[in-house]
Design goal:
This protein has 198 residues and is an alpha+beta fold. Helices cover 51% and strands 13% of the residues. The chain has eight helices and four strands; from the N terminus they run βαβααααααββα. Strands 2-1-3-4 form a four-stranded mixed sheet, sandwiched between helices. The longest helix has 17 residues. The relative contact order is 0.20.
């Protein structure tokens, strides 16, 4: 069976959009019998990542692009305030939710809390609200907040992404035996789905 790995970053509105797209596909049974699925955080260090908001032309484009992309999915988009927070806690909780087979649901919930509602995803209240929306036990989410093993899982996932050549998000890797096929961007989703089906 193939494996699909979805690399995400809560900082990215495109990653948030991809979480909605992939969640919809999963709910429709797109992976059933075709692929094992997992989410993994993207870590910028060592990847040559450049902050797109540092380029005023790209930022201006994004401010036009994001509303139309979100609207096409029936979603609103909001610039979060504060914009820069510690994303690692929410990413670790997504990994913890994945252990309970709710990783994608949690990722979608926390991503949309940030990018559709402008909420601070470093606040415990928001992290637990995402758990509730994903159908994940609040008690399990609260335990995950102090689970030191998640630190190791988080670092290992980031290292694995760097080793696999991930350089931005959303990034998908379809693994079939020894072969890996990478896809960058939420607009590549139809190609990812075809690779899973093929």
């Amino acid at each position: 069976m193939k494996t699909l790995t979805f690399y995400f970053a809560l900082r990215s509105p495109y990653s948030a959009l991809a979480s909605d797209i992939v969640h919809e596909a999963a709910e429709s049974g797109a992976f059933t019998g075709k692929a094992a699925f997992r989410i993994a955080p993207f870590g910028a260090p060592g990847t040559g990542f450049q902050d797109p908001t540092s380029n005023p032309l790209k930022l201006r484009y994004m401010m036009q692009d994001l509303p139309r992309l979100y609207a096409a999915r029936g979603l609103s988009v909001t610039v979060p305030d504060p914009f820069q927070v510690d994303f690692s806690i929410a990413a670790k909780l997504a990994l913890a939710a994945q252990r309970d087979d709710l990783g994608l649901g949690y990722l979608r919930a926390i991503s949309l809390l940030r990018w559709s509602e402008g909420r601070n995803v470093a606040e415990a209240e928001v992290l637990l609200e995402a758990a509730e929306r994903a159908g994940w036990s609040i008690a399990a989410a609260e335990r995950a907040l102090t689970d030191v093993e998640l630190d190791q899982a988080y670092e290992a996932a980031i290292a694995a992404g760097e080793a696999a050549g991930v350089f931005g998000v959303p990034f998908f890797i379809v693994t079939d035996g020894d072969a890996q096929e990478p896809f960058w961007g939420q607009d590549r989703w139809p190609m990812v789905a075809a690779a899973l089906a093929g």
